[in-house]
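go over both lines:
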Amino acid sequence: MADMPSPRAFFANLIGLVIVGLLGWWVLRSVLGSVFWLVRTAVLLVILAGLVWLFLAVRGSSDS
């Protein structure tokens, strides 16, 4: 039967897991935030290009 780890080793392991978890959460949020920022920028550029195209189409049409 395995010996029980000392409380000090248990808490060291627990603190290590918390540190790794926090670093992982920070990296995940950074990566996802960057991806969402790129997607949002692309969507805004498409909307802006569509509005410019619509403006030029309306401005260039001759109804008279």
